[in-house]
Amino acid sequence: MALFKHTFRVESTRLPGYDYAKPGAYFVTICARGRRSWFGEIRNGIMALNEAGNLVWREWHRTGQLVQNLKVDEFIVMPNHVHGILIIGESIDANTFGIQSIADRKTVETPFTGVSLNSRQKMKETPGKGVSTDRANANISIITNQFKRACTLGIRRNFAPDFSWQTRFYEHIIRDDASLTAIRQYIQQNPVNWTKDEYYGS
Known about the structure:
Elements: H1 2-8, E1 24-31, E2 40-43, E3 46-49, H2 51-66, E4 70-77, E5 81-88, H3 118-125, H4 140-158, E6 170-174, H5 177-189
Helix pairs in contact: 2-4
């Protein structure tokens, strides 16, 4: 997985002039500022989320409910960053690339620790403040930045007033089944490979 660690996760692969609202699948990585471990810890190869990590997990999946024609696919909250796959489509089905979407598999939901998310709903209902439900406007940058904003507001209000994300995020356009499968596996294996991760010990 050196390709992910040295390309997808370090340098932005954003293509000049590419329409990131275009239907397709995108691999996104977002890091906490200074790569500080805000979200929990790895225990025996399993990510144990703290309250802030639970909020981040919940907001990511909530994004898939708030944005029209968006599905959230494989996703992991790590101690100081998150990896996820976002699928944008005009009418998304379970087989965007001929592979069953994670949204249609049986999954175990990470327990959420009772943090109010009313602010996210208010963002949605306030013109110019919330996540756009217009596919033409809901590009990867808008979706990601609104997710970061919702997490920042919730974490600062409830847990850590000084929390912040890095200003950038990293994205990669997923172009075929093989890439989608490989990236899903990479995300799933992230906790097991934590001690080898470039962000380990940050």
